Amino acid sequence: MNRKDFQQFAPNGMVNRGNRRSIQLCMEKAETGQPVTLGFLGGSITQGSLASSPETCYAHLVYQWWKRKFPKSAVSYINAGVGGTTSQFGVARVKEDLLAAKPDFIILEFSVNDGPTDFFEETYEGLVRTVLKSANHPAVLLLHNVRYDNGISAEERHLKIGRTYDLPCVSMKASLYPCVVSGLIRADEISPDGLHPNDFGHSLIADTVAACLEDIYLQPAAAQPPCSLLPEPVTKNRFEDSFRLRNYSYTPHCLGFRCDDRKQNSIQDCFKQGWMACKVGDAISFEFEGTGVAVQYRKSVLHPAPVAQAVLDGNPSSAVILDGNFDETWGDCLFITTLAQDLPAGKHCLEIRITKAEPEPAAEFYLAAVLVSR
Question: Are residues 372 and 341 in contact, defined by beta-carbon separation less than 8 angstroms?
Answer without folding.
Answer: no
